[in-house]
Amino acid sequence: MEMLHLKTIATAIILQLAAAAPVTAASFDGAYRGTLNCAKLSWTKAPLTNEPVSIAIMDGRVSYSRVLYGVDRTTVVGQESGSGTVDLDGTIALTGGSTGRLGTMKATYKGKIENDAAILNGAQSVTYQGKTEIRACTLQLKI
Fold this sequence. Notes:
Elements: H1 2-20, E1 30-38, E2 48-58, E3 61-69, E4 76-86, E5 91-100, E6 103-114, E7 117-128, E8 131-142
Antiparallel strand pairs: 1-2, 1-8, 2-3, 3-4, 4-5, 5-6, 6-7, 7-8
C-alpha cells in the first residue's frame, strides 16, 4: 500500500513539473501555410490578396517562401524567400526578398504568435524599372 502511495506522489510531482516547464521556441516547430496581403504598386493591376506563403519553423529559426508573378499576375517570374527567428514568447521577425525579372524587392515582417495564429505586419521595398516604392503588407499565419 505504501509503494502505491509513493508512486502516486511521484506521478503527481512529475505532472506538476511538466506543467511548469517553460515554453520553448521548439514548441512552434512545424510547416505552415500563411497568406500575404500587400498594397498595390503603381505598376501592377491589383494589390496582393491572399497570396499563399509557405513557412517552416525549426528550433527557433523561421524560413518562408512564396511564388512571384509578373505584372499581369499570370506568369511566374520568381520567388520571394527569407528567414528569421521566433523567440520563446512567440515573437517572429523575418527579412527576405527577391531579385529577378521584376527587379529587386526587400521585405521585413514582424509579429507574434498568439492563440495558435500570428499576424506579422511589415513592408516591401520594391524597385522595378528604376522606380522604388514601399508598400505595407500583412502576413497571416495559423499555427
